[in-house]
Write the structure tokens for this entry.
Amino acid sequence: MAKNIAQLAYLGDAVFELMVRDMLVKQDVPHRQLTLSSKAFVTAVAQAEMYHRVFPLLNEEEQRMIKRGRNLHTLSRSKNAKISEYRHSTGLEVLFGHLYINGELQRLTEIFEICMIQKIHKP
């Protein structure tokens, strides 16, 4: 089981992207638009926004994990995002990796749906 925060971020990134792709396919998004559509969700800027929207809804353990991810110092950085946005997106990825690796798939789905509802219905 991955305990390393960087490993959880790596795994969470893949889990999040897979969930986005699954959602888009289920919504029958045309093949030519899949990549462009996924980029609306799978960016540091979008994920940082989701971080702030879901944070108050998380339990204590989830908040602890998302903060650990936010505080992870890495050498890589997004070219199109501020450092703070990149760190918040990493926090969200750590949360997704943590929930996935611990088999908390129902909670993972709940949090993903909250992220998507907030993103899709953004004023």
Q: What stands out?
A: The mean pLDDT is 86. The domain at 5-120 is CATH 1.10.1520.10 (Ribonuclease iii, N-terminal Endonuclease Domain; Chain A).
